[in-house]
C-alpha cells in the first residue's frame, strides 16, 4: 500500500516487502511455503522488469533468485522466468560488447567499422534506434544519417511511403548483418 500511495517511498517499501517475503518463504511449511514462494517470485520478477533497462546486472540477479525459488517449489512460471533470464543475459552480453566497442571508438573516433558495429548492435540486436543514433556522425553513410533519425522518432506518424522506405532499409541492414554473422 505504501509503495502505491507514496511514490517517493516506493523503493524502500519494496525492499521491506521483499525482505518480508524472503523470510516468509524461508520459514513457512507446506502449502504456505508454495504461496510465499509464488509471492516472492512475483515481486522478484516485477523488480527485475523495472530494473532491466537501468541496471541489467541487478535484474539478472533478481531473475536468478526467482528461477531458484520457482524450481524449488515447482512453479509453473519457471520456464517463463528462465526464458526471460536468457533474453536479459543475452542483452547484457550485447551491452558489454557495445561498451568495449565504445572504448575503442573513444580512442579512434574515425574508426568507421567500429562505429558501424555499435550502430548495428543497438539497432538490430537491441532494437534501440535511439541508442544507435547516438553513435552516428558525419562519417556514416547517407542512408544511416537519413533513416536512423526516422527510426528513432515517432514511426507511427510517418507517411506510408517513408514507412516503406524505412522498412526496406531495415530489411537490407538485417540481411547484411546476418550474412556477416553467419559462418
Please render the helix and strand layout as text.
Blueprint lengths: L1 H4 L4 H18 L2 H22 L4 H18 L4 H30 L4 H14 L3 H5 L8 H11 L7 H22 L2
Helix pairs in contact: 2-3, 3-4, 4-5, 5-6
Task: List key phrases describing it.
183 residues; mainly alpha
Describe this structure in words.
By secondary structure, this protein is an all-alpha fold. Helices cover 79% and strands 0% of the residues. The relative contact order is 0.06.
pLDDT averaged residue by residue? 90
* Span between termini: 54 Å
Shape label:
elongated
How many helix segments?
9
Helix content: over 70%
Structural class: mainly alpha
The amount of beta strand, in percent, is: under 5%
Task: Tell me how many strands there are.
Answer: 0
Model regions low in confidence, pLDDT < 50 over at least 5 residues: none
In short:
The protein has helices at 2-5, 10-27, 30-51, 56-73, 78-107, 112-125, 129-133, 142-152, 160-181. The chain has 183 residues and is mainly alpha-helical.
